Amino acid sequence: SSDDWCWFVACVAMVLGCEAMNTAIEKLADCVTLDHDARIRDAKDAAAGAVLLIAIGSATIGLIRFINLLV
To answer: What are 28-45's pLDDT values in tens digits?
Structure first.
């Protein structure tokens, strides 16, 4: 249905958008310094964690939508 496609497109867009922001943060942090800095490490970890959370949420939405189609 069109609702399923809307959820699918929204989830893909969220994951790709979050990944783009993660990449931007990492590139910007690398421009600041290549030396080890705990604050930059933490910022990169937080951005990667955000991508992971969005991906898990998107996968959960996908499972719910597809399981409902099977039942």
So the answer is: 999 998 888 999 999 999
- Tell me which DSSP letter residue 34 carries: S
Range with the largest mean pLDDT of 3-7, 24-28, 61-65: 24-28
Q: Token pair 């979050």 is at which residue?
A: 18
Two structure tokens written together for 23: 């990449």
Farthest CA pair distance, the chain: 54
Distance CA 18, CA 22 (A): 6
Q: How far is CA 7 from the centre of its chain?
A: 15
Distance of CA 67 to the CA centre of its chain: 23
